[in-house]
Amino acid sequence: MHPAPQLNEIDLIVAGACIMAWLTLVLLWRQRRQVTTLQRLQARLGRERTTREQAEQALADTRRQVCHLSASQQSLRDAERRRIARDLHDDLGQHLLTLGLELRALGASDPALGEIVDRIGSHVQQTLRALRTVVRDLQPEALENGLQQAVNQQLAQFSRLSGIPCRLDARPDAFDSHDAGVDKMVYRILQESLSNIARHAQASQVSVAIARAADRLNLTVQDDGVGLLEQVQTVCHPGTSPSFGLRGIAERVTEAGGRFDVASGPGQGTALTMSFPVSAAH
User: Fold this and answer.
1) Which stretches of 105-229 are assigned E, i.e. beta strand?
2) 146-282 in CATH: which number?
């Protein structure tokens, strides 16, 4: 008998079993460590996701508060506009009418003053018409019949006074904002945009597009005029161009929680694109 080789084989088997057990323990330890690390990462990811959701909710709440505050401020401004319009119409308008009547009486009493009286009376009538225009702009009665009719009237008046053809691209549902504040904002901004074009653009054609997309109302006013200098295009940023018309438009859009973009270049016309948040359709 040779017991030594058998013992060697047993020793090898035991050593192999020990090595396998050790490797198994190492693998189990590494696996457990990986699971623990994964769990920690998942927990950290969950905390970060919760923090991000809370931040997004806080941002949404802040935006709603800003929009609410802006709407309140706009309501106060509109009320002040109505008061000024009423005072101009009732007070200054009445004085101008009285002045016109007095001039007529003066001309009738002294025919020698007829030419001077007629000239002064013409100036009074021009002033009265200008006053009525100011009152109408301060208090847009056209909105009483809805935004669509107000926009159509505004574009027709712009084309008639400026001689510039103006095309409107809008589906009927684009005017269903269900938000009187947004309707008034669009009307005012379109009014200011067309006024800027008439004063500065030297355009031969104007295109206006109004579209409803989900919970936003988009307004684009584009002309084929002389365009803007590069520094004027940055008007919505602090410390830039003194183009007060565009600055006023940018401020109105920002106060309404909207977005404002200017695309232009010298000799390439100008496109103003604005987007406003609106309430969901009822």
Assistant:
1) 166-170, 206-213, 216-223
2) 3.30.565.10
